[in-house]
Amino acid sequence: MKVLIIGYGSIGRRHEEVLSSFHETESIDIVTKQSIDNKKTFNDVNQVNDLKLYDYFVIASETHKHYEQLKYLETNVTDKIIFCEKPLFEITKDLKIERNQVFVGYVLRFHPMLQKLKSFLQNEKVLSVNVNCGQYLPTWRQNIDYRNSYSAKKDEGGGVLLDLSHEIDYIQWLFGTMKEMKSYQLKISDLEIETDDLTTLIGKTDREVIVNLSIDYISKITYRKMLIHTLNDTYELDFIKNTLIQKDKIGLEQVYTFSNLERNYMFEQMHRSILSHKKSVCSYNEGLKVMNTISIIQEQNK
């Protein structure tokens, strides 16, 4: 398998690290302006000599570049597998994918406790879900001034709504597409950014599940949790501690854990899925549904 990675920031390097460990990977070339030892590189995707030589494309560039790069690949190759980092775009764009298979990088779908929760919910009537996620932006990325990161810049697709769209994706994956919502997308802190640092909403999905969501750049205590109420049980999933608690009406409690979750585990599972059975992975159409929900929130807060 010949791989072309487009973009070589921290996430592009992680995809290279993961795919290099796959026995079927024959070579990995990279589109970047950086100089990389022992790697074939191109300054731009339109400078790649023969795109048809590659079997797997990984778009890991800044969000605002995704549309043009994806459109270029869709126009110039056929019957290829294309992976695009999340979110698909910075705003909803009209791009039909007909010649290739495209998947979106919502890697949290492959968290082992979220997978277990999904299996538990198959036979449950879900009533409501509360999702909360936050981390102080200056602590996100080592050796990078947060003020210079794409997260701080509106024209590069930054902001907490786009950065933490994982939460919107797994809500819609588990509980249905958002059909009603009231949202607030705000800049409320003293962070030196031009993007939103808090987005919160309450709404309902097409499966009649009540949703309460809050995501932020401002919490000095890092947290990522989901609380689900069903007719029979309450579940609490903590993505940081890798725990899932299930408690029923009579007070019986079960605790599930996944100790020593390796750094690249979810990325490995995601790429394996894309290259084989394609279970759990976010499809292009599902990625567009996330963008549609994001667009509604953006429109409500203009």
From TrEMBL:
Residues 125-222 form the GFO/IDH/MocA-like oxidoreductase domain. It comes from the Bacteria. Residues 1-90 form the Gfo/Idh/MocA-like oxidoreductase N-terminal domain. Coiled coil: none annotated. Signal peptide: none annotated. One of its GO terms (molecular function) is nucleotide binding. InterPro entries: Gfo/Idh/MocA-like_OxRdtase_N, Gfo/Idh/MocA_Oxidoreductase, GFO_IDH_MocA-like_dom, NAD(P)-bd_dom_sf. Pfam families: GFO_IDH_MocA, GFO_IDH_MocA_C3. PANTHER family: D-GLUCOSIDE 3-DEHYDROGENASE, UDP-N-ACETYL-2-AMINO-2-DEOXY-D-GLUCURONATE OXIDASE. This is Gfo/Idh/MocA family oxidoreductase.
